[in-house]
Amino acid sequence: MSKRVAITGMGIVSSIGNSVEENLNALLQSKHGISKISSIKTRHIDEIMVGEIDLSNEELIKQLRLPESQNYSRTALLGVVAAKQAVENAGISDINDCRTGLISATSVGGMDMTEKYYYQYLEDETNHKYIGGHHAGDSTHKIAEQLGITDFVTTISTACSSSANAIMLGARMIKAGKLDRVVVGGADCLSKFTINGFKTLMILSDTYCKPFDNDRTGLNLGEAAAFLVLESDEIVAKENKKVLAYVSGYGNANDAFHQTASSDNGEGATLAMQKAFKVSGILPEQIDYINAHGTATPNNDLSESIAIQRVFGSKIPDLSSTKGFTGHTLAAAAAIEAVYSILAIQHNLIFPNLNFNTAIAETGIVPVTEVKEKPINYVLSNSFGFGGNCSTLIFSKN
Amino acid sequence: MEGLKLELKEKIIEQLNLEDVSIEEIGDDDPLFGDGLGLDSIDALELIVMLDKDYGIKLTDPKEGKKIFESVAIMATYITANRTK
Amino acid sequence: MKNCYINGLGCVSAQKTTESGFLDDIVFYDTNILPVINPNYKEYIPPAAARRMAKGVKMGVVASSLALKDAHVEVPDAIITGTGMGCLQDSEKFVSAIIDNDEEFLTPTSFIQSTHNTVGAQIALGLQCKAYNFTYVHSAISFESCLIDAQMKFNEDEASTILVGGVDEHGKHTNDLHRLIGHIKKEEVGSADLIHSNTDGSIFGEGAIFCTLSDEKTEHSYAKLVDVEIYSQLSEENLESRIKTFLEANKLSIDDIDLVVLGNNGDVTFDSYYKTIEEGLFKKTQQVYYKHLSGEFNTASAFGFWLASKIIKEQEIPTLVKINDQPKKTYKNVLLYNQYRGENHSLVVLQSC
């Protein structure tokens, strides 16, 4: 039997809550976190809705007891909060009692500070400390520092599928015996850069996003961070650890179709799901719940629906996109949806797909729209990104 | 109208980095997308910004662009009828 | 454990590396910003595809197609790309457009190009390669993360040829900022004097270096990739013991190492790491460096990897990369060590095959 990858801890901060518990409560009460933007001054305030975390940078800095000289981007602040929760949840007292790594994902990195001080940097030295924090590896580096992880630390950025790939790499490293424990996940804060970037693509909704609805008009952006602690069978046995769930399968493929759009036949997504089944060794009919990528853009939801039909045929499992709650949190999305998938397994629950009215004409897929109880052993979670990057994760109870 | 068509051809070449295409090669009625000039959905988004910036025409649905950007002639007619600057 | 061979190389750099020859006509620079010598991109990329491509993408497409051609591979089973900054010029263009135009009249092209995985994605698009596609973005170990991933892919029986590369491009604004904070030397230092400059900061470069890795050796193989390790934090005191442990894990001793390839970038504060082993463990070993030729950038260590692979195959060391002068010998086991500003250290062992 091949090695298993246990999930022994998780942490999350999102627009629906600053802990796993708060997120679960919001999901159960169908309470979304989408609103008009307040933390960033933008001329698009009336044209967009976002999922913002209700903690200011100052509050986060205070909570983390960072010194005056700190140069944390908001991505790093959110990442540290979520990663620390995950490590605490896993009951780890000495992070270096076995070979521990960190794999994080981000798309914006320190862009929030760069766009704020872009020209001011040239004028005076006040904020020069943030210059070195621009690059995508910086938030990961800071999370590693805060957790005390010193060796294997790396960052993945594959747009909106980034943290699925971080979880995948972590699972592979455990299976390969290269690490005993690895903290995996992702963080992305909101920035003018991403808001305006998605705006130029004309895929932002001016109201609450409607995943899988025939009349969906685009996505809501969000900010979030989430991390999981993955541990090997040996560590779990040795320390008699409580296992929340397992990473059972994973698959990555490229759509190789277009720089931003998904293919009409969902080729990349289909391949990613098929690969995940191959690694997992289970059959599509064993999946109890699909946590879909479901961004609510016209292109993604149709392409993903077609891919799901290709993989599951006429027997499509219960499905929902939780992006109506949190917005699309880009590089963090797969990690927060991993937390929701694990919660689904732990509590035998399916979380609703908000704002749905009418099925997509071409596919007729109807998502779950109210909290639903049923035994859940396997959850499949999709994440797709620009550049055709398609990733699928399968989580299991045993 | 002829002047506007010429202006549009110049802008299309410049805005979309069509280095190897000359104004003469774009016929007034040639399709811009697909088999014609070979433009794609990202180009359509670039052209939507051009309509807004240079002619004061705001499109909110990228699908609207499909009809307007069929050819230079159709673009010119649409701009003439709807321009605010 | 499967073997991993370097079967093809492609290198776009500040040197004439897309032409034949092996650093036999070195280009010297007397500025602190080393640009790549642009290949004729049109030979590699059709104009319709090139018109929106960032420079990093173009460099990546050329280097990757050279690496594939060199290995006689058409479409690899995986594409793994490392980049510290992604397509920086487009990122700068989009940020400044947001500020300058107060968020109005923005166009999508530069935003799309600015996404870190653009290079890997566009290579896949060009090759119609639907396989595994990852992008690592972790400063000085972006490229080494790719190597680790590739080695695991072979062991998972998921691939038999993998395209791996590192790409970074200059961004004017970013370079200006890095000069302000002293990461680029304040004074202009010629590439020839770099490691003796005795001042803070380095000279910055750009480039795209790709290799085709395979689990099967061919008559074209350059070398075997034995092992790779990365360390986020490592003190100078612990460097030598780390190296010993790493070599021991690969059943190698210090004496087995015939050549060390070092990432010295002329920064007086952080080159001390290299000094430690130049004067310590590897005092009697031939030592080479390369950042005076490539410039420093997040994936510059991929240039070192290219250099080491070429030396193993040619069994020849270009004079201008030598730090010390040891008697010529067979270069069988080669150790690469790199770090940037005292963080993100990497060790790589290559072996002749």
Automatic annotation (TrEMBL), chain B:
Residues 2-83 form the Carrier domain. Pfam families: PP-binding. InterPro entries: ACP-like_sf, PP-bd_ACP. NCBIfam families: PRK09184.1. This is Acyl carrier protein.
